[in-house]
Structures are given as structure tokens and as C-alpha cells.
Specification:
The chain has 340 residues and is an alpha/beta fold. It has twelve helices and 18 strands. Strands 3, 5, 6, 9, 10, 17 and 18 form a seven-stranded mixed sheet that branches. Helix 5 crosses helix 11. The chain starts with a strand and ends with a strand. The structure holds nicotinamide-adenine-dinucleotide and zinc ion (ZN). The site of nicotinamide-adenine-dinucleotide has 27 residues, from helix 6, strand 12 and helix 9.
Length: 340
């Protein structure tokens, strides 16, 4: 089968013919139809220090996917051949304390599809049945291919009660823009989003932000006063990975504000902890998705009017993956799909 492979410990990705993965008793075989490119894939392609210390080569990459189940392992129950499937890319161990307590997303020993086990940028993917999310009929193939990052946005946006609250999202990348849409959908008062990329801010505006703020040209405080906000944001969602954005967010928070932190900085950051202490802020790190509560919540919101379909801005044939990666690198895009 075809697969996009990190086959050498150097920058680059290569489309290669690789052996079909074998299907274990508890696994399913998925014929991959659509995949989506994540920032993580860019790091793996660039072979930065994180990738070099994390990815065993050779490795089939990619973890945002949807497809169709074509084979079931002998012990699999509750799934069937022909089902449309997406899936949770964090494969958890099942025997650490958190797994045994039903908190799979805090597993100590998880492996990652397309990171530390064979990935989804391929004609076929083997996934444990316990990680499959059957795609409900109301979700299109395109949106099914981005359920993984939509899950990150959902996990972050639902970390705290946003109903009737003023929300600041720093970073209008695809995940930030989806968090804007979710915050709007579930009843925030004002949703303000910052970025330094006008294209990204337009995407977030289309997702229902009350104000989009290019912080390279506009003062966030002036936007808050324009909205009649006098005390600061109740809920913060850090979705940029930028130290400047994180500090700006802490500075703009109301006393007793709650902050969910998803953005991954390239290295250690300096934060003004005085803001955290004297304002009594709550900070919560967000990793991945709650398995599977986040998946059910997002599927339900997509059924009740949440619409993120316009965030899929580009589609490429898998053979043209180099072009697709160039578009993602440019930042002039929402989610970029590869079709298999
Ligand atoms: P992305 O890189 O496409 O988006 C980040 C955005 O932040 C970009 O649009 C960028 O222009 C913007 N930005 C840069 N500097 C800024 C500043 N000073 N103020 C405001 N915005 C600024 O990433 P994405 O795919 O949308 O993901 C968002 C973040 O979440 C990334 O850092 C990613 O690595 C991280 N992530 C975390 C998890 C997790 O499980 N915690 C999962 C997926 C992604
Ligand atoms: Zn575990």
C-alpha cells in the first residue's frame, strides 16, 4: 500500500510502498479516505529537536483521518465492515492507574498514531477497536477527517463553564477558530480572538467571533473597552503556543478567571505568575481529548447546529502531499485535507 513515511532521520517525508499492517484480534482495518495535516506533521517533516527525540524511523505519519472499516479482528464486537470510522489517535495502555480509573486521556504509557506507531497517511490503517469512533450520518467525510483537532478545541472550550461569560481565545489557527465556534454555540457572551495573521483572523470571524484582533496592529484593551468590558475576560483559551500571547491573555483575565492551555510552545516560556496569584486564576493544561466523552459532545454539537465545515479550506490528492504541506506551512489556510 502507499504511505507517507518518515523513512530517514533527516528533514523530509516520502511517499513509499509499504507492507499492509496486520490486523490483531482486537483491531480493525480501516481503508483510509481522507486525512488532515496537523502542525505535529510539520514538526515531523522538518525533523526539529522534538521530532528527532520522539519519532522512531521509519514511521508512517499522520493521525487525523476518516475512512471505512474493511476488516475486523476476531474478538471485535460492536463494529461492522462498511462503517465509516474516525478514531482516537492516543492508544492507551489499559493498566496504569488512570486507565483503570476510566481516565484514559491521562494514561502514562500511551502511544500515538503517526507519532510512535504506524499512522494514517496511508491507504490502510490498523487501529484497536477500542479507539474507533463510528462516524454518525450527520457528519460529512470532510468534517469527520478533522474530528481529532475539533476534539482538541472541544476539550478546551468545555474545560470551564463559558455560558454567559466573556471568552478570550489567543491564536486563530484551525483549533482556535473551532474553539470560537464552540464557545459561540454553547452560549458565551463575547468571544474575542487574537492572532497576528489576518487570514486566520478572517476564518475566526466566520466562526462567529465578536471581535478579531490583530495584536500586531491593535491594542486588545481598546477592543475590550469598545465592548463595554471593564473587568477582564472570565475564560481564556491559549491556542497559539506563543509566549507573548500567553502573557497577554493572563494580563487580560478578570479576577478568578479560568484559563485552559492547549497551545504548545517551542520551548520553556516566561510567564508573569503575579497575574496568576493576585488574580486567583485557575490554569488547566489540555492534552488531546477526553476519551470518549469529548467525541460524543462534539458529535452532538455538530448535530445541534455547530458548523465548522468552512474551516476545511484546501483538498489535495495524497500524491500531491508536498503541495499540501507547503500550504499548511504558509499559514494561509484552515484545515488542509489529503484524499486517499
Ligand atoms: P496553528 O499553529 O495553526 O495556530 C496557531 C496560531 O497562533 C497561528 O495562527 C499563529 O499565527 C497564532 N499566533 C502566533 N503568535 C501569536 C500571538 N502573539 N498572539 C496571537 N496569536 C498568535 O495551530 P493549531 O493547529 O490551530 O493548534 C493550536 C495550538 O495547539 C498549537 O500550538 C498546537 O501545537 C497545539 N496543539 C495542542 C494539542 C494538545 O493536545 N495540547 C493538540 C493539537 C495542537
Ligand atoms: Zn494507561
Amino acid at each position: 500500500m502507499r504511505a507517507i513515511v518518515k523513512s530517514k532521520a533527516e528533514p523530509g517525508l516520502w511517499m513509499e510502498e509499504v507492507a499492509m499492517p496486520s490486523v490483531g484480534l482486537h483491531d480493525v482495518l480501516i481503508r483510509v479516505r481522507k486525512t488532515s495535516i496537523c502542525g505535529t506533521d510539520l514538526h515531523i517533516r522538518a525533523w526539529d529537536p522534538w521530532a528527532a527525540s520522539t519519532i522512531p524511523v521509519p514511521m508512517v505519519v499522520g493521525h487525523e483521518f476518516m475512512g471505512e472499516i474493511v476488516e475486523l479482528g476476531g474478538d471485535v464486537e460492536g463494529l461492522s465492515v462498511g462503517m465509516r470510522a474516525a478514531g482516537e489517535g492516543h492508544i492507551t495502555c489499559g493498566h496504569c492507574r488512570n486507565c483503570r480509573a476510566g481516565r484514559r486521556n491521562f494514561c502514562h504509557n500511551h502511544t500515538g498514531v503517526g507519532v510512535t506507531r504506524p499512522g494514517a497517511f496511508a491507504d490502510y490503517l490498523v487501529l484497536p477497536a477500542a479507539n474507533v469512533f463510528p462516524v454518525p450520518d450527520h457528519i460529512s467525510d470532510d468534517v469527520a477527517a478533522v474530528l481529532d483537532p475539533l476534539g482538541n478545541a472541544t476539550h478546551t472550550a468545555l474545560a470551564f463553564d463559558v455560558v454567559g461569560e466573556d471568552v478570550l481565545v489567543t491564536g486563530a489557527g484551525p483549533i482556535g477558530a473551532m474553539a470560537v465556534a464552540i464557545s459561540r454555540h454553547i452560549g458565551a457572551r463575547f468571544v474575542v480572538v487574537t492572532d497576528v495573521n489576518p487570514y486566520r483572523l478572517q476564518l475566526a470571524a466566520a466562526m462567529g467571533a465578536d471581535r478579531v484582533v490583530d495584536v500586531s496592529t491593535t491594542d486588545l484593551a481598546s477592543v475590550m473597552s469598545d465592548l463595554g468590558m471593564t473587568e477582564g475576560f472570565d475564560i481564556g483559551m491559549e491556542m497559539s503556543g506563543s509566549e507573548n500571547a500567553f502573557n497577554q491573555l493572563l494580563d487580560a483575565m478578570n479576577h478568578a478567571g479560568r484559563v485552559a492551555v492547549l497551545g504548545i510552545p517551542p520551548g520553556p516560556v516566561r510567564l508573569d505568575v503575579n497575574d496568576v496569584i493576585f488574580k486567583g486564576l485557575t490554569l488547566k493544561g489540555i492534552y488531546g481529548r477526553q476519551i470518549f466523552e469529548t467525541w460524543y459532545k462534539m458529535a452532538a454539537m455538530l448535530q445541534s447546529g455547530l458548523d465548522v465545515s468552512s474551516l476545511v479550506t484546501h483538498r489535495f490528492d495524497a500524491a500531491d502531499f508536498e503541495q499540501a504541506f507547503a500550504v499548511v506551512s504558509s499559514g494561509l489556510c484552515g484545515k488542509v485535507l489529503l484524499e486517499w
